Amino acid sequence: MNLSETFLQKAKDRTLVVGIVGLGYVGLPLAEAYVRENISVIGYDINPARADQLNSGQSGMKHIADDRVKTMVDKKLFRATANASDLKEADAILIAVPTPLDIHHQPDLSYVTNTCETLAKHLRAGQLIVLESTTYPGTTQEVMRPILETSGLVADKDFALAYSPEREDPGNPNFETSTIPKVVGADTEDARAMAKAAYDLIVQTVMVSNARTAEATKLVENIYRWINIAAVNEMKIIFEKMDIDIWEVIDAAKTKPFGFQAFYPGPGVGGHCIRIDPYYLSFKAREHGLSTHFIELAGDINTNMPRRIISRLLEELSLRKQKALAGSKVLLCGLAYKKNIDDMRESPSLELIHILKEHGAQVSYFDPFIPEIPETREHPEFAGMTSVHWSEEELKQFDAAIIATDHTNVDYDTLCSNIDLIVDTRNATQEIFESFSSKIVKA
Ligand SMILES: NC(=O)c1ccc[n+]([C@@H]2O[C@H](COP(=O)([O-])OP(=O)(O)OC[C@H]3O[C@@H](n4cnc5c(N)ncnc54)[C@H](O)[C@@H]3O)[C@@H](O)[C@H]2O)c1
C-alpha cells in the first residue's frame, strides 16, 4: 500500500481527522472552516490557558464572536488541547505558529522548530504534516524535515510533508478562510495528493510543484504590498509639498479599470506579516550571495514614516500654537495596525508613542478595540497603559491628536470638535474634512 491510499480514502469518506497546531488568528478560523464542513478537528496550542479558553466557548479575539467558537464546541467536532500526544489521532496536522524576526532582524524559526521537535515525539506513519506559517523558501524541506525524521520515520515514505501559506485577512468582511483560494505545494506526488485532498474539504486549492514554490508565493504576495505601500508613502510626502491630496489622487487613479491597484499611505507598516515577511527573503537571498534592494529601500521609507509624522506634528504645533512637543498633551487615536481589529503586533502606533515620549510629550491613546496595551516584543515598557475614557471633557485636555488607525466606530466628529489640531495619517476624516479643514493636517 502506498503512503497516500488510506489517507485519500478517509478524505473521500470525509472521516479525516485534522490537527491544527497554534490556535491564534490563523489557526482558529482554519479549525472553524473544517468544523463547518463536519470534519473533526483537534486543536493543539502550547498555551493551556488558550486551549481552556476555546473549550469554554470564548474566542479571545474581538473580530471572532464567541458564538462561533461555542458552535464549534457544541457540535462536538472541535476540541482544544495542550497535550501534543492527542495529535496522534489526527491524519493531517496543519501548523500555524508565529514566525517573527529576532532582535537582529533575522527570521526566528524557533516556534516552527519547537513544534517539529514536539511532533517528532508523537508522529505516526501515514500522517500528513503541513506548515502554514509564513517563511523563506526551503524551510519545509531543509528545516522541518530533518527534525521530523528524528522520530525514526522517513518523509515521503512513512509520512508526507507539504507547505500551504495562510492568506487569512482578519476583520475583512469580504473574505474568510474558505473563500480564499489556497496555494499548496509538496515535493512528491503522494504528498501533493494528500495535501490537496485535505484542503479540498474546505477550500479551492491551487497546486504548485513543490514546497519551496508555495513558500516563495507567500513572500511574493507580501513583498508586493510592502514595496507598493512604500511607494505610495513616498508619493504622499512629495504631493504634500505640492499641496496635492494623495487620497484624492488614488481615488481618481483607481477608476482605471486595468493596470493599477490602489495602495494607501499611512503612519508606517504594521502587523505580523507585511512588516516582517520581506526580511525572510532578504535573509535567504544572502545565503545565495544576493541582495534584496527593493525590500531594503521600501524598509527605509516605511520604517521612517512614524518619525516623519511626528515631525509634521512638531511643525504644526509650533506654527499654530507656538508650542513645543515637550510638555504638550497628545492623544494617539488607534493602536491596532489596521482598522477594526484588536491586533497591535508591530503596529507603527507603538513607535509613534515611543517617539512622542522621546520628545517629552505627554501621550495617551484611545482605541475601542484595545482597552489596555499588552506586553509587546518591541515596546514592553508600554504594557499596562489604558485607553482614555471617551468624553468631550477628556478630549478637550489635548493639544493635538494623531489618527493612526481608521477604525470605523470612532466618532471623528467629536474628536475634531474638541481638539484643535488633528494629524490624520489615514484620511479617516474624509467625510467631515470640509467642516474641520482648519484643524486637520493630512500627513
Ligand atoms: N495573522 C494574520 O493575519 C496572518 C495572515 C497570514 C499568515 N499569517 C502567518 O500565520 C502564522 C501564525 O500567525 P498568527 O497570527 O495566527 O499567530 P498568533 O500569535 O495569533 O497564534 C499563534 C498561536 O500559536 C501558539 N503557539 C506558539 N508556539 C507553539 C508551539 N510550539 N506549539 C503549539 N502552539 C504554539 C500560540 O500560543 C498562539 O496561540 C505566522 O507565520 C504568520 O506570519 C498570519
The CATH architecture name of the largest domain reads: 3-Layer(aba) Sandwich
Q: Radius of gyration in whole Å, from Cα?
A: 24 Å
Number of domains: 2
Order of adjacent strands in the largest pleated sheet: 3-2-1-4-5-6-7-8
Unreliable stretches, pLDDT < 50, 5 or more residues? none
Separation, N- and C-terminal Cα atoms: 64 Å
Secondary-structure content class: alpha/beta
- What is the succession of H and E elements? HEHEHHEEHEHEEHEHHHHEHEHEHEHE
Estimate the strand proportion. Answer: 5-15%
Give average pLDDT, whole number.
96
Overall CATH class of the largest domain: Alpha Beta
User: What shape does the CA trace take?
Assistant: elongated
Number of strands: 13
Helical residues, percent: 25-40%
At the fourth CATH level, what is the homologous superfamily of the largest domain? NAD(P)-binding Rossmann-like Domain
Q: CATH topology of the largest domain, anyone?
A: Rossmann fold
Helical element count?
15
Which ions and ligands are bound to the chains?
Answer: nicotinamide-adenine-dinucleotide
* Largest pleated sheet: 8 strands, mixed
